[in-house]
Amino acid sequence: MTKSNFKNMRWVIIGLCFLANAINYIDRANLAIAAPHIRAELALDPATMGVIMSAFFWTYALCQMPAGWFIDKVGVRLSLAFAVAWWSVFTAVTGMVHTFGHMVGSRLLLGVGESAAMPSFAKAAYNWFPRKERGIACSIFDSGSRVGSALSLPLIAWIISVMGWRGSFIITGLIGIGWALAWWFIYRDPEKYRDIAPEQVEALLAERGENQASESKEAGEGKVSWADLFRYKTVWGLMIGLFCLNFAIYFFITWFPSYLMETRGFSLKALGTLGMLPALLAIPGGWLGGLTSDYLLRRGHSATFSRKLCLVGGMLLSSCIALCAFVDNIYICLALFALSYASLSFAGSNTWVIVGEIAPTPKHVASIGGIMNFAGNLAGIFITTFTGVMLTITEGSFLVPLAAAGVLCILGALSYLFLVGRVEPLPLK
């Protein structure tokens, strides 16, 4: 590998993370799009369907913290290849079950595999990108979720129309297995290229503090255990902020297709065209968030100002999701949804940048990402179940879930502003 090829390799790596995240979210959105067909075939009410949707988030959230620890121990190559292969198998299995219990079981096991995804992507970006380019790197892999959400609407709707809802799960599962094989053969940590491109590798290691961390360890200086991470206010601020952000984002991933079909009268065809607009506009929204924070950093602003401005501003603007419940015009409603989703993406890409910038050592990057994503995905459990219960109580009204999402967006902005401290490595205890 030449020096120029080494430099280009980082974009290959982040591109693969982007694709994995897109597949990840296609697999998640599969259930939301197929929900009306599954409910009809299995005779399920909205509350029961909400339980099935939330099952994934229980294991996905609970496994985040051990997944982060595992990634820091074994490395990104093994952890991500295993995780994608695992979740792809159980995506396919979902299309083969015939009972409520088996459906819940397959979604629980899907969540186990997908728990390692985002912390692995954050660790890969940290490993391969210098600090002033990590914003765009994280926004690229993070935008995979929006691409997956957008593609899932026309793709899954078309597969369902041709092969039925069961076929959609089997096809997307096979795609994921192919990606896992590609990652295993392509990915290596940059340290593996030290002999071929030593200057680039040494620059990366120096910037991310690898050498300093080793020297500190040899000198017997302070260390931070995994449990010690919970002693930092900044970590709690990130947990609360991502919970609030994900509460709104997971509405788009879970109940949004049902909202458009059942409340706004969308057909499958309309769902695959107009329905994908919010997710499509969220893609450049995320890229803009990463580019903006990197630009501010290069212009001499502190990491605290650069990252937190995007987090707080994006979260405040995303609260417009609450207004969607009060407008009758479908185009205004879709515009508000699109603005909210794009703003959430603008903020969301920066959450994963901060993970690497506050880590006390490189061995804590995925661990902090897992802790943060654990809290963030408790929101997935809550929004899916809460919305299903509210629909049952209010006979199909989405007003309360949308209003709650708007309020939590404001709360998330306050958490990032006041609880998250300076964006710099947490002090060794």
What features would you highlight for this structure?
429 residues; mainly alpha; Growth Hormone, Chain: A; 17 helices
Task: Tell me what the structure shows.
This protein has a single domain (3-217, 226-419), classed as MFS general substrate transporter like domains (Growth Hormone, Chain: A, Up-down Bundle). It is built from 17 helices and no strands. It has helices at residues 3-42, 46-62, 64-74, 76-94, 100-114, 117-128, 134-186, 198-207, 210-218, 233-254, 256-262, 268-271, 277-298, 303-318, 330-358, 365-393, 399-419. The protein is mainly α. Helices cover 78% and strands 0% of the residues. The radius of gyration is 21 Å and the shape is globular.
How is the topology of this model organized?
Blueprint: H1 3-42, H2 46-62, H3 64-74, H4 76-94, H5 100-114, H6 117-128, H7 134-186, H8 198-207, H9 210-218, H10 233-254, H11 256-262, H12 268-271, H13 277-298, H14 303-318, H15 330-358, H16 365-393, H17 399-419
Helix pairs in contact: 1-6, 1-7, 2-5, 2-16, 3-4, 3-16, 4-5, 4-6, 4-7, 6-7, 6-15, 6-16, 7-13, 7-15, 10-15, 10-16, 10-17, 13-14, 13-15, 14-15, 14-17, 15-16
